[in-house]
Specification:
- By secondary structure, this protein is mainly alpha-helical.
- Helix content is about 65%, strand content about 0%.
- The protein is built from 21 helices and 2 strands.
- α1 packs across α17, α8 packs parallel to α11 and α18 runs antiparallel to α20 (about 430-435).
- The longest helix is centred in the N-terminal third of the chain and has 28 residues, at about 25-55.
- The chain is globular and about 60 Å long.
Amino acid sequence: MKTEERSDSSRPAEEPAAPAGRAGHRPDLVAAGVGALLVAVACGVGWAWQRSNGELQAQWPPLLASWNPHVGPGTPAALTVAAAVVAYGPALADRLPWRRLLLTAWATALAWIFSLALIEGWYRGIARRLTTKHEYLRVIDRFDDIPAALRGFTDHIVVGPPGNWPAHVAGHPPGATLTFVWLDRIGLGGGAWAGVFCIVLGASGVAAVLIAVRALAGERLARRAAPFLALAPFAVWTGTSADGYFAGVAAWSIALLAVAVTRRSLLAACVSGLLFGWTCYLSYGLPLIALLLATVLLITRTTRPVLPFLAAALTVPLAFTLTGFAWWEAYPLLVERYYQGAGGVRPYAYWVWGNLAAATLAVGLATAAGLRRTLAATPSAALGALHPRRPAPTAEAALTLLVLAALLALLAADLSGMSKAETERIWQPFYFWLLPATALLPVRGRRGWLGAQAGVALLVNHLVWTGW
């Protein structure tokens, strides 16, 4: 069956040869080794630091986890999914018609996330996760009158006044909590429905990233990245945390802007803007997604969809502000609340680099190798993109710029000091856009790298209890 193709003058030209094979395998293995060493050092230093004074507020740093070797009902399924993707994923990604590839990648990601979550069993792995004392479902009954709850939302962020919000409710704008309130209103209340919702939306981000990569960097690189996206190690934390849902929404905002540019779609630009506006009311850190959105415009060298995008995006803060919640008033209170809790105890000196070790576990060693190739290609890609008389970026350069934007957003979040620990979960919206760096790896070693990715997720999920 023929693969669907289309021509678009605003899409960068695809390179005819496999990307980034020129440097051989050894530098990639060195990059993966450096990533593994960073994790090992973070574990050793973190264990000693936590044992000495408890300041890290994490039992198994750099992850928020506790040592608990175990197997469970999802173990056979997780091993089966991993083996199937390693054995057949690259070939299927090359051969399947494009739309079928998108559905297959989404379905595979769903199977992978569910099987990993079910290692803890249905109740402990999915149904209970969003019902604990820190989570959103604990306050559903306080949103019977939604406008009143929004008007008084900031009054309950800081610890002190009666009725302060649980940690995750206080730590996010009210869009996050409202999602679960609305699910409850339509009859999908409780932890099980909330967990399934987050997993399904989180897995859909795989399709969104593939659509964006195809639009900006060509179909060949999107197909190369597909198995790695479907078998992402951070699936351990997508099932089940609300951050998986946040990552899915952010991914679709970026994907639709890429579609708006390459297909000149006003509707796609407007929906992208709405989703970005909503993303900013899901997490205070996600306005950083604007860096990726700006990179989409940089790659395609157009500002055509900016006005409809902004008009749609601004409707979300306007609606919240008119209802009584002001983002800019809530954020300083969140900072105060953050330092009232673990954020005020956890030392920046460890977590500013320990976070990167946690990120390495979340994206896997193949991504570390891909990022080496991304950084090597950055100078020429950046110079080409910023030079007004240069032609449109090549496929490899476009992908480099997109991955680099995600990396810069992640580093900005890290340096802010507002993400000390738990970044294996919190940074999922950025991890999605680091994984396409694996498309730059040589074709011949794809199965080995996929096996390494799966191995990281399986080891983490079977050796520690993550709490998500």
